Amino acid sequence: MSQESSRPQPRLVQFKLVLLGESAVGKSSIVHRFVKDSFDDYRESTIGAAFLTQTIELNPEITIKFEIWDTAGQERYKSLAPMYYRNSNAAVVVYDITQESSLERAKIWIKELQRQASQDIVIALVGNKADLEEERQVDNEHAKLLAEEEGLLFFEVSAKSGDGIKTIFQNIAEKLPVEAQLNKSQQKLANKVNLQRPSTNNQASCCV
Amino acid sequence: MEEDAVNNETYSANNLLTTEIQPNQPQRRIASVSRPPVPTRPQKRPSLSSLTLGGLRSNIKVSELQAQPTTEISFQNIGKSNNFTDTNSIYAPSTQSNNFYDNSDVQTIRTNPTLTIYSDEDDGDQNSFTSRLEQIISHPNSDLKFGADESFAEAEDDQLPDDKQFFILSNAGKLIYATSGGAMDDQNEVKYIGYVGVIQTVVNSFLLDGSELKSIVSGSTRITIMNQSPIILVAVSKLKESEQTLLNQLDLIYSFLLSTLSKPQIIRSFQNKEGFDLRKHLGRADLSGLDALCREIINFDAGVLVGAIESVRLRKTTREKLSQMLINNRNKDVLYGLLVDPSGRLISVMRPKTYTLHTTDLQVLFSLVFNQWKSFSDGEELWLPVCLSKFNSAGFLYAFAKSLGSFALILIGADKTKFFEMRETAQKMLDDLETKNLLNTLKDAITRPLSTFEIPAPLVNHFIYKSKRHLQYITPSKIESKKLKKYYLKLYSSVDRHTRISVSYLRWDKSAYNGESYGVGRNIAGLGWVTPNYELYLITGSVMRKDMLVKSAKSIVNWCRKNEERLFVYNGATF
What we know:
The complex is a heterodimer.
Chain A: H1 2-6, E1 11-21, H2 27-36, E2 49-59, E3 62-71, H3 81-85, E4 90-96, H4 100-116, E5 122-128, H5 140-150, E6 153-156, H6 165-175, H7 178-191, H8 202-206
Parallel strand pairs in A: 1-3, 1-4, 4-5, 5-6
Antiparallel strand pairs in A: 2-3
Chain B: H1 13-17, H2 30-34, E1 51-53, H3 62-67, E2 73-75, H4 81-85, H5 87-90, E3 91-93, E4 113-117, H6 129-137, E5 164-170, E6 175-178, H7 186-190, H8 193-208, E7 215-218, E8 221-228, E9 231-237, H9 243-261, H10 263-270, H11 284-298, H12 302-306, E10 309-310, H13 316-329, E11 336-340, E12 346-351, H14 359-373, E13 381-386, H15 389-392, E14 397-403, E15 408-413, H16 419-435, H17 438-447, E16 462-467, E17 472-474, H18 482-494, E18 502-508, E19 512-513, E20 516-517, E21 524-530, E22 534-540, H19 546-562, H20 564-567, E23 573-574
Helix pairs in contact in B: 9-11, 9-14, 13-16
């Protein structure tokens, strides 16, 4: 505790986030735009699930670290999904604005999350591929209305151009129970403060 | 790694020098390879009742064949009676079918009858069975470019696309996958429908016959069929590969299919509905993975050819440190731990004492992981359910994989909920690597190639050495030249695997030979040497004399055996 408070650095709060949605709607592309600020036109589709982390600054005092599960959209992996969303604090449900069917799949994910995930999970409905306006099949207003009815955040983004990607995570961060999480982790820390190793800066040690 | 029980007898290095190389081994030239040897004992000929060779000179109507699979099939103008006298060319045992592995759990495939279709048709006859078959299986511009005039060391197009294709279909004749077919929609499927009809009919009629036909040879094309009912896998190759080579490749492809679906799921899918479309269970990722694997095989993969994993050369002490690092940080959920470089070369293995990992399982796993890795970013971690079919074809294991640029760490466990435990263990291992200063050692080892100059056989341009005990191989550099690939394919197929020790010598003369020219730049010679302990394939453009080549081969073998502990992952870390 004393060690923590003597530092001028912002406090770090961790949250788990999961991306769900039909195959090929661009979940991995959204994550990679967010984490690496890069885009690959010929991305391999995800098998299993990929795990990534990224931090954003919520305000000068608080930095949020997202632990992100980028899941495979294929139906075959559906049975694994609960494992990824069960402990998640946030879920990004993605559809492709040029594929009507992907919104239908997104609705099913939303229902499942509302039923099975934790009560206070923050859900965002995200329409990707906004750069393909001329191929649009899903009306912006229609999806927005749907999100409002279900009490979800709503965004239309383009992972390709990068438009709107940061905003998703920024807005999710603002809705997350930061104080509660902070208290929880401080309690944990207090309980086992002596066991904590001095250097656990994982990020630095892994990419030499 | 699988450690087979081959070594009933031990060869000392000294012993090896005197290992008899049959002096009377006939000089096998290309021409002799294409004709299988005449077996000494009479072959039991499978019943031909359902297949009539010869007959009408009319087109085969695929629809008719499909409708009446058990009735007579007439292949037009095939097998004139004079061909029948040459019994062995119609039902000859394939030249290389036995003893690919000596380890017990590899399915030993017995000598199989091969149907060789001889045809007297004019090549220009577009309606002939042979040419129709070839038309269907090849692209319009599929001229075999073998024998083009570059010397083999020159850089050239490293693709071998049109010479080979793979197909996966169901018992009911539904096409599941075709290389170069891309996503197999119904429209695309039409392209292959004639072909599928022929294959399905042939397979069905022979199945009913109780025969074990696995190959059809038509002109320069060999069609090899693997029956894994309800799935049928087909390889079509013009590369003059042996049946066993193709069966091994089909087995790898089948294992890949199982890795995503597992055997029970496939069986279940077809239960009660034979016409089920398995593509419903295969997503984009699966098909692109399957495609990547098939392309890798078609474009030549030394590991697939010799059935082994490539290893990274390391000092013995480094290997031991790595084993220690893995074992010390292991948690109880980790079943296997693997350190691999990005081209799939093995650095270190941790495994339970009693459970080895099958080469095919490793090849499948690496193919899955590295295909995915192309789009990975630093620090990204993968959690992948995978059915390693040689380990257990009915269940899934879960693989954690993390890339560190120059190499990757893969941890495999049986519990799908243990990602974070695996992740923590992986981090401990990597921290350990860093504190022990092993990271740079590893990076150096991975980037330092094996040079033929280090080995006392300087005239050898290229070689593949496989240690059967370790099921690993080494090769001085990546095999990228198309020509070199073809030399190796031919060399590999030329070795007689019926005997314990076998040597094959091939020579590609710069002058035209038997209608085919094999390069104008220089003569090329190759030597294949297979014993119960190792396999060596070497290619050279510098020395042609067989006795010199044999001497070089012995030098390489001696060197490899002397440096075994450096070259191969020896025991790995066992617990």
